[in-house]
Amino acid sequence: MTQKWNILYRSNDKIIWINYINSETKICYLTYKDGKTPLPKGWERWFSTTYQLFYYRYIDNNGSEQIQWKSPKTSNQYNYSPKIEPSTVINLDLKDGDKIHDTNGNVTFVYEGIDIPCTINIRDTKIQITIVGKEDDCLEFVIDNTTKNAYIHLLAITDNECPLPEELLHKGTFLLKMVDEICRQLQIKTLQLTDASSITCKINGITVSLEFQSLMKYGLSWYERNGFSYQNKTKKDIVNKIRNTPISKIREFFSDLDKDLDKDIGQVKLKAKCKIKELENWYAKYPEFRNKDYVDSLEDVTERKLRMRRISFKTLNTQEYDFSELPYKIKIMLVIISEYEKDKKNPDLLSDFLTYLWINNCSKYVEVMSVLYPKNYIRTYIDQNILPDFPTDSYMIKVFSI
What is the pTM of this model? Predict the structure, then answer.
């Protein structure tokens, strides 16, 4: 029986097929059926959407296909060619985005003259649009036709070999513009996302937050520069306080902390344990958070107040910072600050200091950030009056005029 099968993902060694009728998937390894032994050069193992079986095919140097079928039930050979349904073309340049409502499966979007292969999956009142890359999906974008709201769940361009022309600059911005155009053509009210953008230091290969780096450099996140706004209106006030913190003030604070650590690291650890008291205060205010099942149930909540409360609890409950490497890291940071301050022309602001480091030596930026804003740890050793915590609420929204 012929089924509605289409390619969901393809790499050099496998193809994943999806049946959009029942969401069943099949993995086809481009090897012999053991999934390990490579085929002779020029041969591929393929799956027929029409006849629902695997076969081997060979493409000669002239581009002519020589087909040899292998049926799971018989050793007979057939000369049938596979029939893969062609992609639907939706030309956004011609404003025919309404066709999205009637399309399920493989799609080619045409935007600004560029062909972009996608898949559309329609379930109930929601439309999911996916662009697949080599390592991960390049774009996961969902439209809710009931509320007329849209959500970007994933935008991953770096090192992902997205199906866009190599010469195209600013691929992330290009895809955001395409999403905007789809939203306008479908009369979407809002587009929402959580900023989890990152950027990699080319010197040491370490990934850091693009949101924070962009806020320090421009005073705006990458998504803000592309038309989004923070839903937490107080976040920018805290960001501005961080940006305008004098680097000399940070140097003085950490110079004193470095001396305390050299004298008695236990004293600093004792101060850090004040966080335990804060956690007990939290439980007194919200006793339901002692129940792990309740905390887990908040993962998918949509109510903003509960989302924010879960984030606050997660931050408070994060693992305590490992102080064993802190003295060494502080000493490195103080040397980096000293080098920066030698040039009296350099501004005495944290935003300028961090931007300078990223441009001139991003590995030093990584070293400094491991002290000022370490990943996955509470900064219990830093006085909030000196340098406040960076707000983890990164929910963003773009409102369209209909």
Answer: 0.67
